[in-house]
Structure formats: structure tokens, C-alpha cells
Fold:
Amino acid sequence: GENVEQHPSTLSVQEGDSAVIKCTYSDSASNYFPWYKQELGKGPQLIIDIRSNVGEKKDQRIAVTLNKTAKHFSLHITETQPEDSAVYFCAASIQGNQFYFGTGTSLTVIP
Amino acid sequence: GAVVSQHPSWVICKSGTSVKIECRSLDFQATTMFWYRQFPKQSLMLMATSNEGSKATYEQGVEKDKFLINHASLTLSTLTVTSAHPEDSSFYICSAIAGGDEQYFGPGTRLTVT
Structure:
């Protein structure tokens, strides 16, 4: 089955700096890669996603890149703000039939 | 965006009793809903996949007689924890697929069994 690895497990950045979280996957059939943000005591929130026919996608301060050959994808957050502090999960899926999650990254943005 | 609600948001029950958690897609029809369990500081653990009008598919190690899932309509799925015990205390989260492959999560239900 699919195996998704996520690094780092914790990340601290100064406000205004960039944060990068990386994930790798094992199943070349995976074609949908969402990223979720989870605040304490709440459910995960879809923040951005990318499909295998695209190499990069950007939405304001958030961007995701995908390298199908190397089987890795990354989340980039620029100009970080304290409200970006949360746990971020990557996931890999084959057309939404089942989702395999990374272990999560706890991001702290220091004011 | 698509909205998924869960009720209740938190519940405390006594050991041996049953608890029902509702998951609703508010502004879309969900043919597939997922139920997850999450322990503190850990990732989401898929419990079962629920398709409207059919029996849920449980992940290995999840007791289907203990965690009863019903997906009676395109907007409602329920998870019933039967004969709850303290080790069932956890954060339960549902999600729904809106259309293609985008998954939207509910806010979660904190279950505490005393």
C-alpha cells in the first residue's frame, strides 16, 4: 500500500520568514495530493491541493510543488504570520478513494 | 467551500453506554464519507469508509460491531460507539468527498468515557 512520509515533525520560524514542509510517497498510482491545516481541537482544513498533471500550484502565500519522478511534494508558506501556527498534514490519494496521511508537522511562527 | 458538520462537538459518557456521532454535509451531497480517529499529537487513523446505501468498509483492526456506521442518505452518516470503554476516548473526525476527490473534514467530536 501507499506510504507517506513527512518532514520535519516540528518547525519554528520567525514571523515573515518562509516555511517549507516536505512529503514523499511510494505509490506511483497516487494522483491527488492535498494539504491540510489543523488547529488545536479542530478538524483538518483543506488549504491547497495538487493533482499529478500539474507541477506547481499557488494560492496567495501558499504554494505546493510536485515532483512525480522523485515522488515528493512540498508545501511552501511565505511571509508567515502567527495565525499560520498549526499542525500541517500532507496526504496522497488515488482519485479520492482512500487517503494516506503523513505524520504531521507542527509549525510555530514566532512573532 | 464545502461544509461538513459534526454533532456533538464533545461528549462524556459512562463506561458501558453507547454514543452516536452525526456527520452531515451541509451544502453538497457526499457519496463517500470517512471516519477517522485521532490520538493526541498523532496523525489521522482511518477507521472506515462509508458509502451511501451500502455497508461501511472497515480498516483492519477496527471492530465493526463496536463502531457501527450508517450512511442512510447523501448528507448524513452516523458513527455509534457501542458499549464504550475508557480506551475508546479519543477525537473522532468525519470527512466527506465533494464531487471528485476533494475531502472536507468535520470539526471533530471529543469523546470521553469515564
Q: What stands out?
A: Chain B has a mean pLDDT of 93. The two ends of chain B are 37 Å apart (CA to CA). Chain B is about 0% helix and 55% strand. The interface with chain A takes residues 1, 4, 6, 32, 34, 41-44, 46, 49, 93, 95, 97, 100-108, 110 of chain B (CB under 8 Å).
